[in-house]
Amino acid sequence: THLNPNASNETNESNETSSPDFFTASFTQNPYPVYEKLRKDDPVFKVMFPSGEFGWIISRYEDAVQILKDPRFSKDIVKRYGTEGKSIFSKNMLFSDPPDHRRLRGLVQKAFTPKLVADMRSHIQSIADDLLGKLPSQEKMNLIDDFAFPLPIIVISEILGVPLEDRDQFRMWSNTVIEASTGKNEELFQQHEREFIEYLTDWFAKVRKDPGQDLISQLVIAEESGEQLTEKELLGVISLLIIAGHETTVNLIGNGILALLEHPEQRDLLIREPELIHQAIEEMLRYNGPVEFSTSRWASEDMEFRGQQITKGELVVVALDSANRDEEQFKDPDVFDITREKSAHLAFGKGIHLCLGAPLARLEGEIAVSTLINRFPNMKLQKDVDTLEWRPGMVVRGIKEIPVLLK
Ligand code: HEM
C-alpha cells in the first residue's frame, strides 16, 4: 500500500537493516530506547525497508520540523511512481503536493474548522455519556472496544453521513489498510480494498440521487460540477477521512488513559483541577502519540542533509514519537507531566499537511478523558501493563485491548 510502503515489524532477521532491533516486536512494545539511541548516534538513519526500497528515518525534533516543511520532500504518489495506480488512496490531500493539495484540502477544510467543531461539543458529550451508560457491566470494560473506538467512529460517521450499522465493516477495512504496512497479507488487503471501493461507489450513487447536508453529499456535488474534484479524488479523500477517523483518535484516548493509569498522581491532579484537560491532552499526544511514522515523503532531488547524501527517489520517514521525546526540545522528555507548558509537539505533523482533523481529535480526546475519569475515578488496569499488546505496523501507535476495572 502507498499509505505506508515502508515499515514492518515482522521481517526482522532476514531484513538487511543496519540496526538489529529496529523492526522487532520489542520495538513495537517500547520504541523509545531505540529512538533515544538513534537521536544520539544516527539521527538521519539509512534503512532498507521490507519493500526493498532504501530510505531514511529522521528521529530528531529539529530535523523533523525541517523535513516536514521542506517542499523538496514530496508526497505526491503520481509523481513518484509515474501512475495513479489502482490504490484507493493514491489521490487525496495527504498524498499530493501543491497545487492539488491546496484544492483537495480546501474542499474538506470547511467541515473541520475550530468553530464548527466546537459547536459539536454537547453532541459529542452526549455520545460519550451514552456509551458509558450502556456498558454491559458497570464493573469492568475493554477501554478500546467499549469506548475509545466507538466514540470517534460515531462522530465521523455522522459528519460523513454514512450508516452507523456498517461500522464493523469500516473498522475491518481501515484496520487492514493500516496493518498492511506489515506486508503480511497482500491478498486480504486487496480484497478489503476492493470491497471498500465498491461500498463507497454504491454509496456515492445513492447520495447523488438524494443529497443531504453531510460532507459526502457536499463533495459529491463538488465532483458533479466537474471542476473541483474527480471521481478518483472523491474516493481518495473520503477513504482517507474514514481511515483517519478510525485509526487515530481511538489511540489518543487509549494511549492517554493508559498514561493516566500508569501515573495515578497525574490522574488525581486532573480530577482535582479539571481545567488542566487541555494541557493533559497535549501531553498525551506528546508522550505516546497515535501516529508514529508520519507517512513517508520522498526526495525529489539529490541533496545533502545533516551530512548524509540523500538520493532522488529515496523515502524519508519522520518518526514523530521520537521527535516528541527529543531531549533537546523537551525537558525530561520521558516524564509524563500534564502541567507541562505549551509543548509544540509534532503529533499532528507540521507544515502544509498538518492534521486537518486536529480540532476534532482534540475535542473528542478532552471529552472522552474527562468523562471517563470523572465517572470512574478509581479505574484500574486489569492486567499488568507490560502484558498489553501494542498493534503491529508503524503508522499508528496504539494498544489492541485495554481491560480495566471500573470501581
Ligand atoms: C494528516 C495525525 C486525527 C484527518 C495528519 C498528519 C498527522 C496526523 C501526523 C500529517 C501526516 C504527514 O504529514 O504525512 C493525527 C492524529 C490524530 C488525527 C494524531 C488524532 C489524535 C484525525 C481525524 C481526521 C484527520 C479525526 C479527520 C476526520 C487528517 C487529514 C490529513 C491528516 C485529512 C491530511 C492533511 C493534508 O495532507 O493536508 N494527521 N490525525 N486526522 N489528518 Fe490527522
From TrEMBL:
A GO term for molecular function: iron ion binding
Keyword vocabulary terms for this entry: Heme, Iron, Metal-binding, Monooxygenase, Oxidoreductase
UniProt feature coiled coil, ranges: none
Family: Belongs to the cytochrome P450 family.
SUPFAM superfamilies: Cytochrome P450
Family annotation (PROSITE patterns): CYTOCHROME_P450
Organism: Paenibacillus amylolyticus
Protein's recorded name: Cytochrome P450
Organism lineage: Bacteria, Bacillati, Bacillota, Bacilli, Bacillales
InterPro entries according to UniProt: Cyt_P450, Cyt_P450_B, Cyt_P450_CS, Cyt_P450_sf
